Amino acid sequence: MDFLIGIWDFFAEYILKQAPMMIGFLVLLGSLLLKRKWYDCLASTLKAIIGMLILGAGSSGLVTTFRPILAGLRERFNLAAVVIDPYYGQNAVTEGLEQTFGVAFSYAMTLLLIAFIVNILLVRLNKWTKCRALFTTGHVQVQQAATAFWLVLFAMPFLAKEGNTILMLIVMSVLLGAYWAVGSNLTIKPMQELTNGAGFCIAHQQMFGIRLNYWLAEKFFSKDGKPRGRKVGEMEMPGFFSIFNENMVCTAILMVVFFGIIMGIIGKEYFVTQGVIAADYNFLYYTFTTSLNFAVYLAILQLGVRTFVTELTTSFQGIADKLLPASIPGVDCAVCYGFGDSNAVTFGFLAGLTGQIVAILGLLVFKSPVIIICGFVPVFFDNATIGLVANEKGGMKACIVLTFLSGIVQVLGSAFIAGLVGLAPFGGYLGMWDWATVWPAITVVIKYLGWIGLGIVTLVLLALPQLEYRKDPKGYFLITEDYSAYKKYKGINDGDEEEDWSEFA
What we know:
Elements (H helix, E strand, L loop, with lengths): L1 H15 L2 H15 L4 H40 L2 E5 L1 H16 L4 H19 L1 H4 L3 E3 L2 H18 L9 H22 L1 H8 L5 E2 L4 H14 L1 E2 L2 E2 L19 H20 L1 H6 L9 H41 L4 E4 L11 H23 L4 E4 L2 H46 L6 E2 L3 H4 L1 H34 L1 H9 L1 H8 L15
């Protein structure tokens, strides 16, 4: 018995509580279940662990570089500055989870695994649940598991007490797994229409946002299923727009603008008195290089995530394929950028950025205790995706108006929830559409209604596929099984040539 207890203690201390080793363990387990060769199992496990260590290096760099800036805002103006970015938000949770709730971050990785199993079960039982989509975007799952972990602990802090670990993981896993299954399921119709039946849906951070804006574009910007005005693709775009096509360049520009303004407001004197720079050091040069470091560390974070997520997703997806042969995969939102009007991606991004700037100015004018700093990932990927869907359904006006409003919602919702749950002092929040709207609502309901609130939220999530199915029982599964037959059933004759998108299935 002592031997078994010793094994468990070692596992809990050096694997369960150590995020890199926990991810490595999950990848090893998945690889073994897939009956891969031993050297493939070893390679995948090592890549996963190294990827997590790279992620840690990027996180440490962000903290070291930008903590003086965020501290300067707090001390000089009594403001909590929050960067809305999923990587920065994940870093904030990692830094603050143990000291705030006394819970190890590695539990969030365990939550990821169990929630994914819940997603699998909901899809496996689609005859009753009506859930057709499997969430396979691994790096997004990591970010969401971390943020959901914090939000649920804030709403139900007693779960963090010793002895409640199993209950905590069950509650969180059911909630997050249902969100993954239902959210990605909501994007099936918009994506099938956008791609002419490519056979995938979106598993990302703006799934409810995609469906809501799809509905708004259809309701207010279209007539008889067609846009009221021109689409973005019918206009000629100036050449300088191409600068926003490069992720790293765009991130650098955004950070130089926003951090440059913030550091200029704080002033050189503060950084000198804090020992960050010498009195004779050129402040403009320091501001410029420090802002660029955001892009550097963000690239390191992304490299780390890509390194281990590939192995994690492969292990899980192989199992899922065997269990769920009829499921439709939920993928990264960037996959849809090859469909529809490509310029709608840029229009959506710029309109969303404008909305974010307007909202940030509003926070400053009304002296909000939490100030938001734009991050590239929310402002681009949320608004580019929403803009693409809105343009397809409602034309250029829908693309611009809806993404402008989306930018406002991202900032205001993130400022509210980051301040409410105590993430603002750690300088980051996930900040993307669903996590600035849906999850703040979930958090508030559970916080003030307790177990009843949790039950209401879970039932509402699980009811959404049922309601969609009841509106069109015949077409509900037909849209994923045979899109050509679905179009005939719906009387859709758009003149598009039929294409074979089976490679996406």
